[in-house]
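Let's practice the habit of predicting before peeking. Look at the sequence and jot down your guess about where helices and strands might fall. Then scroll down.
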Amino acid sequence: MFTRRTFLKSGGFALGSFYAGPLFNGREMRTGKRKVLVTVFQRGGMDGLMAVSPLNDSWLKKMRPRLAMFAGRRQGANALIDLDGKFGLHPAFAPLAQYYKEGKLAVVHGVGSSYITRSHPDAQAHMEKSLKSLNEQLLRNTGRESFEAIGHLSKKDLCADQPADGVEYPRSPLGNALKQIAQLIKAEVGLEIAFAETRGWDTHVQQGTGNGTFAQRARDLSSSVAAFWKDVELHHDRVVLMTMTEFGRTVHENGSGGTDHGRASCLFVLGNQVDGGKVHGKIPELDPDALLDGRDLPVTTDFRSVFSGVVSKHLGVSTNQSLFPGWTGNPVELMKS
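Done guessing? Here is the structure:
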């Protein structure tokens, strides 16, 4: 239930755990039809090579004799969805494939952080700290607007706002979080940034292929995003959703049928103004000599490049230095002019 107390508790925007639902700040709650950025943090380190696999790399089967997946009818339910002849989407992400074909979904591969660590808390804290300048940019003059937004939400009676006809969210923490965010967007209370999260991407044991831990998490994420996107259909021109994860997995599978903490992964960006239908970024051939420490996919795109490219074009935050002080990289051009 959206109550005054709820908003007072979450009125100070912070990057952290949003497992029970979305979090937002006062500035975000100004009334009006504002552009919205929704970010989903995949906590645990998503295996980008399983989410979006290279189709023609002969090393993949050698490195992952039990986990490698391929495209083609012979693969049956385990078949990857061919995106562009070079990369295949895991079948559990099938609800997102149509958006890719429509040119609304982009994949960025080889994404990660310059901060080298295999610790979940350290890697997540680094990413969240890096995004804190962005936070400060959007937190100015929030006090009075927070209370104005609370009053506006009471009038809107968000508790009675149901998903659009035919929309059914997964009954999961992520599904519930995106359902709430959709309610705020449709209520036109001025939401600008919302964060949600999904856990369980730490697939050390029995990762599986078409079924298993990874596939379960992928189905929940893709089904939740698809329900959200349908729910906010009338607002597509002003909404962008993107995913992020703290790091990827090792290229080699381990002895427990899973993968261990690695470096680069991939992410998804969805929106009408996204330069979609493409796999942006790059990854090397999976030859051990091209991997970091002979085991990890190298980071070829800093996650700050993706954020700065999306935020500057979509929300109008203009300079890299104001977003990420001390960072001198270039934004990835993911948004159409």
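How did you do? The two ends are 39 Å apart (CA to CA).
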